[in-house]
Design brief:
With about 375 residues, the chain is α/β, with parallel strands linked by helices. It has helices at about 1-20, 60-65, 140-155, 205-245, 265-280, 290-310, 315-335, 340-350, 355-375, and strands at about 25-35, 45-55, 70-75, 80-85, 95-105, 110-120, 130-135, 185-190, 250-260. The strands form three sheets. The protein has a five-stranded mixed β-sheet with strand order 3-2-4-7-8, covered by helices on one side. Strands 1-9 form a two-stranded antiparallel sheet.
Length: about 375
């Protein structure tokens, strides 16, 4: 009789343990945002002028190749002034080199040796520069430091410095030097580092063959390098300027969690909700409002919210369900740029204490996004151009 009782208790324990088991699988949704730039620009005048000074061999139609997302090119008085320069390039001079090759046996003894020859260029010349003049937003930490210094100076009450008057310039009009304004500070000056050209042949058994190969392929290799260099000028210019000012489209991978326990009563509804999320969030576009997507997600958000109270017990399985459901809600709010709601959900995850680090990560991400949107005077990561 005791043996049967033990088996029964073991069976009941096994059934209860399995009833509490609940699994979630991760899935990824890719969606589009406008990448937020480092500098703020007045949306009423997002224009730029482009000047290029390229050597003859590097000539190209930069106006068609350079694109700053959210900006339009203008002939003059652009909010940004962009200058691209690339100087003359030379092929350099040929120089023969050599090295000794030794063959060794398994004991390290040299069994044979011979010399191989190659030809390479020396003293090649090439340089390029990108300069951007435009608005420069001061870093908040630096601004706070300046403010503290200003207050300290005020407390010390330093006497105001009086500018001395040159008696020889009385009644003479003097042109005052131009003061660099806040709206036209130089924000970037960068070099195109791969402008230098170099080429080395394969190795040959004699120097004559190496030199013949060098001369035979010298022009082709130089022209290939010019093409590569021109492409790098376009790529680096677009990348650097859009990093500072542009609102280029950017694909982000959002992590969600789907209930994968078929015996759970919410399995079918949870699966449907997550499958709907996959389709709805793909409708987000970097230059379109999010209103329609928000509307489409309302029923899913309401469903997830209801689960937090419906499964509010202290059971481990219920707590796990609430945790991953809150993660899904936080991800939805983050995707929609609803930072306040995302922070609220992050605090819920932290307080639940199933895995509070997940909540802390969301709190940090949402706070940073909120600060960036405030800095750029935007309500979302969408580039909405006014008609």
């Amino acid at each position: 009789m005791p043996k049967i009782l033990v088996l029964l208790v073991t069976y009941l324990f096994f059934i209860n343990a399995n009833s509490q088991k609940i699994d979630f699988d991760r899935f990824i949704v890719e969606t589009e945002f406008a990448k937020l730039p480092k500098q703020y620009t007045d949306p009423a005048n997002r224009t730029y002028t482009l000047k290029s000074n390229l050597e003859t061999a590097l000539q190209m139609n930069t106006r068609e190749l350079i694109q700053i997302y959210g900006f339009k090119e203008t002939e003059k008085n652009g909010q940004l002034d962009i200058e691209i320069k690339a100087g003359s390039m030379t092929r350099g001079t040929a120089q023969t080199g050599s090295r000794l090759v030794e063959n060794k046996d398994k004991n390290g003894k040299v069994t044979s040796k011979y010399t191989v020859y190659y030809v390479s260029t020396i003293n090649p010349v090439g340089s390029g520069w990108l300069t951007v003049y435009g608005p420069k937003t001061e870093d908040p930490k630096k601004a706070a430091k300046k403010e503290r210094k200003r207050k300290k100076d005020d407390d010390e009450q330093k006497p105001e410095k009086v500018e001395e008057v040159n008696p020889f310039l009385n009644n003479i009009e003097i042109e005052k030097p131009l003061v660099e304004t806040e709206s036209k500070k130089r924000t970037l000056i960068a070099s195109y580092n791969n402008g230098n050209y170099s080429y080395t042949t394969s190795e040959y058994s004699n120097s004559r063959d190496a030199l013949n190969n060098f001369e035979l392929n010298r022009e082709v290799n130089f022209q290939n390098h010019l093409t590569s260099y021109k492409n790098s000028i376009v790529f680096n210019t677009n990348r650097k300027i859009n990093d500072l000012y542009g609102y280029a489209p950017e694909i982000k991978r959002l992590k969600f969690h789907i209930l994968d326990t078929e015996k759970h009563p919410e399995y079918k509804n949870y699966q449907n909700a997550c499958n709907a999320i996959k389709l709805i969030l793909k409708k987000l576009v970097y230059n379109k409002p999010t209103d329609e997507v928000k509307q489409d997600l309302n029923s899913i958000i309401s469903y997830f919210e209801s689960l937090k109270s419906k499964y509010g017990s202290s059971e481990k399985s219920d707590k796990k369900l609430r945790h991953f459901t809150a993660l899904n809600l936080a991800t939805i709010f983050y995707a929609l740029d609803l930072t306040d709601k995302c922070i609220e959900e992050a605090n819920y995850i932290i307080a639940l204490d199933y895995d509070k680090e997940d909540g802390e990560d969301f709190f940090e991400d949402a706070t940073e996004l909120q600060e960036d949107l405030n800095r750029l005077k935007m309500s979302s990561r969408r580039l909405i151009e006014k008609e």
